[in-house]
Amino acid sequence: MTFEGIFTPTVTPYAADGTIDFARFSEVLESLIEARVHGIIIGGSTGEYYAQSAEERFSLVEHARKVIGNRLPLIVGTGAIRTEDAISFAKHARENKADAILVTSPPYALPTELENAHHALRVDEAAQLPIMLYNYPGRMGITMGETYFREVSRSANVKAIKESSGDFNNLHLLACKFPNIALSCGWDDQALEFFAWGARSWVCAGSNFIPREHVALYNACVVEKDFDKGRRIMAALMPLMNYLDGGKFVQSIKYGCELAGLPSGPVRAPLLELEEEEKAQLQKVVADVKRNVAAITVL
Fold this sequence. Notes:
single chain, alpha/beta, TIM Barrel, eight-stranded parallel beta barrel, 12 helices, 8 strands, 49% helix, globular
């Protein structure tokens, strides 16, 4: 598959008793399909995979595959501390006809780049599916660098990377030395720069609740190649990105979904819900973003 467009890492809706609300999950998936995002990711950080049992993660993938059918590509996250568990998630993704898998660094163990690459290649061997790497040192404790990229490039299945380090040096390294690994923006307030450096996709949690605005930036920069328009859209999106950077990321995405008519329930512990003042602030930010992007795209 090709990694082009807006890929949404979906939220996981929970019922009042804390169990997964699969009816609400179906509504989230259908809303994204209707909004014409380009792919859906299950088992990412936004989906709270770290707070779920293996059985819950398996169930989410199986449900998503049934709902989505062949309407959009499905990418399945394989993140886990143990390589053996990541392999299990990868095999399950293959069994459920995932279009690709998301492979991140195992947290806490702090492997070297060579060890981390060995982890990725073992997951790859088990799945034999297209891979989007996921570099997020802020959560994993280590970063993917030149040694890692050189080693994993031995596999033709490594197609893309969600680059979430926030480090422009890694963006430049990938663009200049590893053109075989397609860039995907994973740091929202750098989306414009990623597109300028040749990225053709963006993995953005905010597209759970304002997908059309994120698609608008992609269309301006990648499809229309109109970076003047792209800069205006990016400027309109920045207040939301700045808000999300302030913390309580998953809580904010879930409340954004509620504002969009897609209530997805609480977050799981140890996270706590937004305060009322925070909700009011986010509501205003979202309203302003939607109004300002609409004014640009109708020109």
